[in-house]
Amino acid sequence: MASGTRVTTKRGKKKEAEKDLALTYNEFKEFEGKLYTGMKIGRGHKWHYDEGIWKETKVTPDLWELSFAVNKHRFGKAPEGSGVPVGTEYHWYILGHQNVRKLDANTYTTSMTGLKYKLAHKRADKGKWSVSGNGQRKRLIRLLQEMIRQLEAAPGAEKAVEKKIARRQTAARKGTTRQKKEPAEVF
After folding, report:
1. Are the CB atoms for 183 and 42 separated by under 8 Å?
2. Cα–Cα distance for residue pair 142/146, rounded to 1 Å
């Protein structure tokens, strides 16, 4: 081997890729004409949730109020130096489908699919949210209005989503789920 030739191992390539991810996390990126920082569009996370407590209260015959609190843990490790500082907080609004099947008197299978939308964040070194409470409310109203427009414009889209959920539930019951990259949330 010639002097000065560099040999790159698999381990070296992996460390180099992790370093690149950490460096690019805080760089400005563009999506539909708007600048953002954080994870690139199309990337994603996979989480393991501790045993949590899901509480629900019936409000009307078809409406339930719910709360869920739990710690979640990243599968694998975040690249060194990437991500937001410890103490950063987020306020997400989740629109989702919960599909449930009763197995016996006390047991149900549950799967959830949907979207989550960032309403605001609070940086670890700041004492306030990036958007006021009133601003978050306005963002949520715009989000819900847009979702209504999309549903009204594509009446067949709901059927396609229902079929996709049914396929996932069947695969989950059979233990044949396959991992597929889903689009990540926008920051």
Report:
1. yes
2. 6
Which amino acid, residue 104?
D
- Match 């060194």 to its residue by tokens: 80
The separation between CA 97 and the C-alpha centre of its own chain, rounded to angstroms, equals: 14
- The full length of the chain comes to 187
Between the alpha carbon of residue 135 and those of residues 49, 50, 128, 138, the distances in Å are 30, 32, 13, 5
Q: Which residue has the tokens 């609004």?
A: 93
Kind of pairing between the strands at 29-31 and 72-74:
unpaired
55 or 13, which is more confident? 55
Read out DSSP for 16-58? HHHHHHHHHHTS-EEETTEEE-SSPTT----EEEPS-EEEEEE
Pairing mode, strands 63-69 and 72-74: unpaired
Taking a C-beta distance cutoff of 8 angstroms, is the pair 70, 53 a contact?
yes
How confident is the model over 38-51, as pLDDT tens digits?
888 888 888 888 89
Q: Which of 49, 45, 47, 46 is nearest to 25 (CA)?
A: 45
pTM of the model: 0.66
Tokens matching residue 7: 């040999």
